[in-house]
Write a structure and sequence with these properties.
The complex is a heterodimer of chains A (about 90) and B (about 230). Chain A is α+β, with helices and mostly antiparallel strands. Chain A has 3 helices and 3 strands. Classes of the chains: A alpha+beta (about 90), B alpha/beta (about 230).
Chain lengths: ~90, ~230
């Protein structure tokens, strides 16, 4: 029983949020510049994004997990006007 | 006629807005806490500037989920007047009451300065006391004021005369140097389709007394008051 609980508790939704290609990313540009100052070459572009880990407890129906994570990403974590998102479920 | 100034955790221009409306416009004002949901006694709302919820996630993103925002949405749908200033503009965009989004300034700086904006239309309840082409001196103080929107939205904003303020130089010219944050087409403020919701990045509430360097912001609040007075006479 304990093992089952631990297994379910470790279920995770991973959400990656990135700026749409059409949106300028001045932070990414500044990071790219710093990386180049460090001596690295061949950096074509740096885009900064956000990464979220959502730990899920056993109260959620496993079948609904993906849909729930998708909604959380779309309605809260990302602003679809400027950002894209990608959801991964890790069991 | 009664105004409400909505306060979220982290709002910090609420008292300025209250002061202007009560002292200079001379109308009754209440503070409205973000957990309040009854807006039935108000005719106009100000969503003030600040750093609601610490700007976590994105500026304005978390304030959208405060209980008061559902009521603000209904209030706006009924035709109530809503003015969002700075963080208030960001909140209104996140809440989809205004189109587009405000992203990090193109130069990454938090810019705190007096700038010029050009009134692009007097055909809103917020600018009826101003003239199209008039230049106002207003302060800005933001790091995320770079207005972006897609092509369809931009075309619609232009077609329907919904760009209310544009950044400009002292003579009203749209020069590159006069755009403080990289906003698309120098956009500093827009309104919704029904023209009863407006957001702008500059702070008119901080420019209502000559002692503070400018009183150019006052006609915006006076416009609101006059519009409401005219509506109530009818």
């Amino acid at each position: 029983m304990l093992l089952v609980t631990v297994y379910l508790l470790s279920m995770k939704a991973k959400v990656y949020v990135t700026l749409k290609p059409s949106v300028l990313d001045p932070q990414g540009k500044a990071i790219q510049h710093s990386v180049e100052l460090l001596g690295f070459q061949g950096i074509a572009d740096v885009r900064q994004g956000k990464y979220f880990e959502i730990a899920l407890d056993q109260s959620l129906d496993p079948k609904g997990v993906e849909e729930a994570a998708e909604r959380i990403a779309r309605e809260v974590l990302a602003n679809p006007v400027i950002e894209d998102y990608r959801v991964e479920i890790e069991e | 006629m009664k105004f409400g100034v909505v306060i979220f955790p982290g709002s910090n221009c609420d008292h300025d807005a209250y002061h202007v409306l009560s002292k200079h416009v001379g109308q009754p004002v209440d503070f409205v806490w973000h957990r309040d949901t009854d807006l039935s006694s108000y005719d106009a709302l100000v969503i003030p500037g600040g750093f609601s919820y610490g700007d976590y996630l994105r500026a304005g993103a978390l304030a959208r989920f405060s209980p008061v925002m559902n009521s603000v949405r209904e209030f706006a749908a009924r035709g109530g007047l809503v003015l969002g200033i700075c963080n208030g503009f960001q909140i209104l965009c996140e809440a989809k009451l205004l189109p587009g989004a405000l992203i990090r300034n193109h130069d990454l700086h938090f810019t705190c300065a007096h700038i010029s904006v050009r009134v692009e239309t007097s055909a809103t309840p917020f600018t009826s006391e101003l003239e199209s082409g008039q230049i106002l001196r207003l302060p800005i103080a933001h790091a995320e004021g770079n207005y972006v929107c897609d092509e369809a939205t931009f075309a619609e904003l232009k077609r329907d005369n919904r760009i209310v303020f544009r950044y400009c130089d002292e003579d009203g010219a749209l020069t590159e140097a006069a755009n403080p944050n990289g906003s698309r087409d120098w956009i500093a403020g827009i309104c919704n389709r029904k023209r009863n919701v407006m957001g702008l990045m500059p702070h008119p509430e901080r420019a209502c007394e000559e002692m503070l360097g400018s009183s150019d912001g006052r006609p915006i609040f006076q416009s609101l008051s006059n519009t409401l007075a005219a509506m109530q006479e009818r």
